Amino acid sequence: MNSVLNVAVLLGGNSSERDVSIASAAQVVKALRERGHRVWAVDTLHGWLDGEQEAALFSRRVQAVPPTAGATGAPSLLAILNEAPGDTRVDLWFLALHGGSGEDGRMQGLLEMTGIPYTGSGVLGSAVAMDKDIAKRLLATAGVPTPDWLMAPADGRIVGEHLGWPVVVKPSKQGSTVGLSVVRAAPALDAAVAAARAFDDEVMIERFIPGRELTCPVLGDGALAVGEIILKRGEIFDYEAKYQPGGAEEVFPADIPAETARQVQQLSLQAHRALKLKGYSRSDFRLDRAGQLWCLEVNTLPGLTAMSLLPQAAGALGISFGELVERICRLALEPS
Fold first, then answer.
1. Degrees (nearest 5) of the Cα angle 265, 266, 271?
2. What is the average pLDDT value for the chain, to the nearest integer?
């Protein structure tokens, strides 16, 4: 990409991943400006940010607990998208949004109506990947192993018979493990479902797979380096472990056999294609004690914070953060 682009970086939103989105956007805006592009930060709640507003917002840190999602009370998003300052012509929308309407196809639908290219997957792929129930059905059909699951409500006896204990209870349409918990016995199931339902109207109950946590992004038509997440506390890579220092050690490339790494990369590509994704994604896996890989979920707008997995996977292959965001832009501008 040789020419200077006018890039509007969409950030914030009102999902439980708002803080993560702001942290991603701060990195993206800085990197694109360093590469010579004209960049604006656009908060989907508050509109186009001036320099002072941007600096204040980007100085925030990701907190240990996710913010509570709620009604925006914001101006019309369509009006925001059409209120570029001055005579600015936007060449590209860069989505630094995570979760909620920013990642589930609704924002993508609005951007389709602007006629301006945007980064990441389209309406259908975004919606399908965010709905874990639908996504797992498609993954299984495509030959990507995924843990067995049920959708709440489900009786504890049925859960025990079909899935065994422990199980993972999580919102069906959320990211960053928001609202997720591990349940070891039937008496604790209802409370876990209620906690997850605070973040979504649908709750998934999934067989817990003990083992090593692996992850692999896809960029364009190729898989990046496979990484391993080694937890320092707890047994799940939860919100705090992801975004607070010392929560986990992330190793890129993962210390696994070359054949296992190739399998993870191939399954990540299969998942990316099965869900009709575009541009980039990141698939998360468990490697059980028998050597079986299990796909837990696929992220269509993986984090781009200083601690995020996608930049680390790219870095392991010699791709700098600036080059990574440049490639993401280039992929978005390619003809469909």
1. 100
2. 89
Task: Give strand pairing partners of 93.
Answer: 8, 118
Q: Does domain 6-120+321-325 have CATH number 3.40.50.20?
A: yes
Output the CATH code of domain 129-146+211-315. Answer: 3.30.470.20
Highest CATH level, class, for 149-207: alpha beta
pLDDT higher than threshold 80 for residue 246: no
For the stretch 69-98, pLDDT in tens is 554 444 467 677 777 777 678 999 999 998
Domain edges within the chain: 6-120+321-325, 129-146+211-315, 149-207
Q: Which runs of consecutive H residues, i.e. helices, occur in the chain?
A: 18-34, 51-58, 77-81, 100-103, 106-114, 123-130, 132-141, 156-162, 189-197, 239-243, 258-274, 309-315, 321-333
Residues with active-site annotation: 17, 176, 243, 282, 284, 297, 299, 303
Q: Residue 140: is its pLDDT beyond 50?
A: yes
Residues β-bridged to residue 28:
none
